[in-house]
Each structure stands twice: as structure tokens, then as C-alpha cells.
Design a protein that fits this description.
By secondary structure, the chain is of the alpha+beta class. The strands form two sheets. The protein has a four-stranded antiparallel β-sheet with strand order 3-6-5-4. It has 16 helices and six strands. Among the domains are: 100 residues, Helicase, Ruva Protein, domain 3, CATH 1.10.8.350; 61 residues, no CATH class.
């Protein structure tokens, strides 16, 4: 789609979005939602009235969701956010602090410690930046005032209420991102319910305060999504100067194989068999395009956040942290 057409579509959407942000429409949507979840899940009217008594539509959340870094920054700028000395050194410190737990979790779930650490590093700078928005405000705002993804966030708001009841959370106090992601691993409510585990064995799944639960839950997420221990994630590739081909559009799926990409003229050497699924990723470098071959485990990282830039940032940070750890031994 051309930039001109994108601009036209955005302008056409503006009146719809502005109408949806009307506080009256927001309140009407919220009231209907409360009636539905009370009927479906047996929540008492008094409980829902208490939980939602001071929920507010937040225009700043609508502004933030319209400009995520993955969509407005080129790769070389996006990379510089996460591949910093602070984040690498912080990852080493975090790994050492949680070394025993990480070793145990890696053995149980088959996920390398550096990947778990890098996820926490990219998401929240090792738990330092977990979000300042009330989860109820964030999810309600997006559920009833953000038409492009209202159905998704309405489901997540319902999941959050169920999660609060199951895990004995105080929903009015829970803080997270502008999209309702919570704790150091930034799980949205449906992921929290589906993939969080009780790593500490205390009978609760606490992704806000319990680091054993946090680390084990990240590992479990990767395991459930098919992480393969010991397999490569990604590697750089090149093409000849006179290469006559055309780079494919970046995809989140493994649309080719090692042999298939090599047959197209991409130059790289892989330890995986010729028939191993693979994808080609092209990103904007500082002076020229960067080409990366992504494998099965690369695709698994995109299941945590559906962005090839995110997946490559996690991978590169994980390698930098591991190299620093090994160099300091």
C-alpha cells in the first residue's frame, strides 16, 4: 500500500476513532460489557461495580498505541534502543543474580538462560520498567474506544477479570503497559492465564513480584510454542553484488527452506539440514540493507511479539549477554 493511500485511509478513520473516544459511548460499552461478563461468568454486580467504579478513558493510551516503535522506527534505530551497554551489563547482572533458578528452569523447559534473560531485558529492562497504567484503564480504553482492535481488547479485559478472580489479584491496583501487558515478562491477560506457571511452588502464579514464577513462565511460553533447545535462531546472509533477485516481504512464517534460500542466491552456511524451514528477513541498516536468515526458533520468538525486529533484537541481545558472561568467566 502506498504512503498516499495509507494517509488517506488514516484520515478516513479519524472521524470514527474520534466518535469512539466519546466518554458517553465509552460508558455505554462498559455497561454492556459488565452485564455480559456477569451473566457468562457469575460475577456479582456489586463486585463489577466496585472494580469499575473509577475506570477512566485515557486518551494518552490511544495516542501511544498508534505509534509503537516497531512501526515508526527503522531497524538500525530500533536496535539501538535494546543493544546498549546498560542492557547488556544489566543482563549479565540479572543472570548472575538468578543463576541457580535459570539453570534449573533451563534444564526443565529446554530454553537457554540467555533467551529468558533477553526477553526480560527487552520487555522491561529486567523488571525496572513494567508500565505505569492501570490495567483496567488500559484494557477498557482500548476495548471501548479503539475500533481497530476493540474486539481483541474486549476479550483481554474479560480475561483480566477472570485472572483477577483466579489468582486473587486486586484488579484496581494492577499496573502495566498501555496495552495491558503485566509484570517483568509483560504477559497480556490471556497469556497470563494460559502460560504462567507456579515456579516457586507456593500455589500462586505471581508475575508481578515472584521472580521464580516470572522466569519459569517465560520458559514455559517458549516451550509451549515449540522452542527447540540447541537449534540456531538466526544468522546473517549476503547476496552477490550483481544478484538479480528480489527480496521477499518480511513475514512471520517460515516460507522457504535452507536449500531454497540458497538456491535463490542468498549466501550463508547453515548447520541445519537443507530441508529445514527458514525465512529471509530484510531490515534497514545504517548504510545498507541487512539480510538475516530466520529459523524455527526465530519464528517462536515472534510468537512473544509479532515483529521480526523484536525477534532479532531479542536474539542479538541474548548473544551479547551470553558472550559477556562467557568472557567474564
Amino acid at each position: 500500500m502506498s504512503r498516499a493511500l495509507l494517509a488517506l485511509v488514516f484520515c478516513l478513520l479519524l472521524p470514527t476513532i474520534a466518535l469512539a473516544t466519546d466518554d458517553g459511548a465509552f460508558r455505554d460499552g462498559l455497561a454492556e460489557f459488565k452485564r455480559e461478563v456477569a451473566e457468562r461468568h457469575g460475577f456479582a454486580d456489586q463486585t463489577l461495580a466496585l472494580w469499575f467504579a473509577d475506570v477512566e478513558l485515557q486518551q494518552a493510551i490511544l495516542d501511544a498505541i498508534s505509534r509503537p516503535a516497531e512501526r515508526v522506527r527503522p531497524w538500525h534505530e530500533y536496535r539501538e534502543i535494546f543493544l546498549t551497554e546498560r542492557r547488556i551489563a544489566g543482563g549479565v547482572e540479572f543472570w548472575r543474580e538468578h543463576d541457580a533458578a535459570l539453570r534449573s528452569i533451563a534444564a526443565e523447559y529446554g530454553v537457554a538462560p540467555e533467551i529468558i534473560v533477553a526477553i526480560i531485558g527487552v520487555e522491561t529492562l529486567y523488571g525496572r520498567i513494567t508500565g505505569r497504567w492501570r490495567v483496567l484503564d488500559a484494557l477498557a480504553t482500548l476495548a471501548f474506544a479503539y475500533p481497530p482492535r476493540a474486539a481483541f481488547f474486549r476479550r483481554e479485559l474479560e480475561q483480566f477479570l477472570l485472572l483477577s478472580r483466579e489468582e486473587r489479584l486486586e484488579p484496581r491496583a494492577a499496573l502495566g503497559s498501555y496495552a495491558g501487558a503485566m509484570g517483568p515478562p509483560q504477559f497480556i491477560p490471556s497469556s497470563y492465564r494460559a502460560y504462567a506457571v507456579d515456579g516457586s511452588g507456593n500455589g500462586r502464579r505471581d508475575l508481578f513480584h515472584d521472580w521464580d514464577d516470572v522466569l519459569a513462565s517465560v520458559a514455559n511460553y517458549f516451550k509451549v510454542h515449540g522452542w527447540r533447545d540447541g537449534e540456531p535462531v538466526a544468522q546473517p546472509a549476503e547476496v552477490a553484488a550483481n544478484w538479480p533477485g528480489r527480496h521477499p516481504a518480511n513475514s512471520l512464517e517460515l516460507g522457504s527452506t535452507v536449500a531454497g534460500l540458497q538456491a535463490e542466491g542468498y549466501e550463508f552456511t547453515s548447520a541445519l539440514p537443507a530441508e529445514a524451514p527458514a525465512m529471509m528477513v530484510r531490515l534497514d541498516g545504517v548504510d545498507a540493507d541487512e539480510l538475516w536468515v530466520g529459523y524455527h526458533n526465530f519464528r517462536v520468538i515472534t510468537r512473544y511479539n509479532r515483529s521480526v525486529m523484536y525477534a532479532l533484537a531479542v536474539y542479538q541481545l541474548s548473544q551479547a549477554i551470553r558472550d559477556r558472561m562467557e568472557g567474564d568467566e
